[in-house]
Design a protein that fits this description.
Layout (H helix, E strand, L loop, with lengths): L2 E8 L3 E3 L9 H11 L3 E5 H6 L9 E5 L13 E7 L2 E4 L12 E3 L3 H8 L8 E7 L11 E2 L2 H10 E9 L4 E8 L6 H11 L2
Parallel strand pairs: 1-7, 1-8, 3-4, 3-7, 4-5
Antiparallel strand pairs: 2-9, 5-6, 8-11, 10-11
Bound molecules: NADP nicotinamide-adenine-dinucleotide phosphate.
Length: about 200
């Protein structure tokens, strides 16, 4: 099982504002959809609640919450989970198998911080989209990636530029953990999708 985190940030490491994305970037959303289709995704409760209709079609969702009674919108495809002793535990036993699949970590800020600063939970790969802009002043109170994350990336990961577009100004990087095996299939998939 590989853990793969995905995020889109601007040059100031802004990722959210008022429980939504601070921008509308259809290219990035399309890439996100193609990469995550038919996969298992894990996210914090606030990010889950920001999704249209609280779902992402054709994907299994695991929602992190401390609340064992939290009601999801689609119990066939959504599970809830919590972290204990640096491990992910489902609140109910019935979908245990989904933790054996590749796991795509899709935010938000609390969850990226949790996974990136806990050695046992660190993703092997990170697909980072950098939107080459500074956040507008009104998002000054927005949600930013924790600064420890960049320190960890610089120390423990190597980066590859996967794609670059001018309009909108986006760079996509693949970060690979120094202890992760080279994953040619993932690289091929990300490169293929990013350069379509
Ligand atoms: N730009 C991007 O790529 C991107 C991607 C995703 C999200 N976002 C943005 O990020 C923002 C949301 O981020 P956020 O940090 O406010 O919230 P979040 O990380 O989405 O969710 C936080 C919630 O996760 C649960 N949680 C945290 N640690 C946990 C643990 N150890 N075990 C179980 N549950 C745990 C808690 O729920 P309970 O309180 O129920 O326990 C907590 O309230 C939104 O603006 C969203 O649009 C941006």
């Amino acid at each position: 099982m590989n853990k793969i985190a995905l995020w889109c940030r601007d040059l100031d490491h802004l990722i959210g504002n008022q429980n939504a994305l601070p921008w509308h970037l259809p290219e990035d959303l399309k890439r996100f959809k193609k990469i995550t289709l038919n996969q298992t995704l894990i996210m914090g409760k606030k990010t889950y609640e920001s999704l249209p209709n609280r779902t992402l079609p054709k994907r299994k969702l695991i929602i992190l919450t401390q609340d064992p009674n939290y009601a999801v919108s689609d119990s066939e495809n959504h599970s809830t989970a919590y972290i204990k002793n640096n491990k992910i535990h489902l609140h109910t036993e019935k979908e245990k198998a989904s933790l054996d699949n590749d796991l795509y970590i899709i935010g938000g800020a609390e969850i990226y911080k949790l996974f990136m600063t806990t050695p046992e939970l660190q993703p092997e790969y990170i697909i980072e989209t950098i939107y080459n802009t500074h956040h507008p002043k009104h998002t000054i109170s927005g949600i930013f990636l924790n600064p420890e994350i960049q320190k960890n990336l610089d120390k423990n990961y190597t980066q590859q530029l996967i794609s670059r577009t001018k309009e909108p100004a986006l760079n996509v990087l693949l970060w690979t953990h120094k202890n992760a095996p080279e994953n040619k299939d993932l690289l091929k998939k990300i490169k293929g999708i990013s350069n379509e």
